Amino acid sequence: QVQLVESGGGWVQPGGSLRLSCAASGSIFSAYRMRWYLQAPGKQRELVADITYGGTTNYADSVKGRFTISRDNAKNTVYLQMNNLKPEDTAVYYCNALRLLDGREYWGQGTQVTVSS
Hints:
Order of helices and strands: EEEEEEEEEEE
Distance between the termini: 40 Å
Number of helices: 0
Shape: globular
Number of strands: 11
Structural class: mainly beta
Strand content: over 45%
C-alpha cells in the first residue's frame, strides 16, 4: 500500500496562490493515478484534478485555468499549483492515490486551504 502526506496549505487572500504537495511512499508510484480532492464545510468531497503516470491531466470545471496538477515521478510527489484563489476554494484538500491494478484508493490526512481577506 501507499502512504500519502500532504503539505502546503494555509491562508491566502483572494487572488493569491498556494502550492500543495503530496509525498507518496511505500509502493511503486507508477502504479497509481494521483488525484486531488477538496471538501468544503458541510459538503461532499469532490474531485479537483487528476494525473496519470504519463502526465495526462483532467480538471474540474471550477478550477480550469487556475489550478495545475503535476507529478515528479523521481520524487514520488504530486503537486497542485493553485492560482487566482477565490473564497469558494476554501476547503480541506486531500491527496488520493488510485491503484490501477484493483481500483483501491488511499488518502492523505488533508491540508486546510483558507481564502479570505
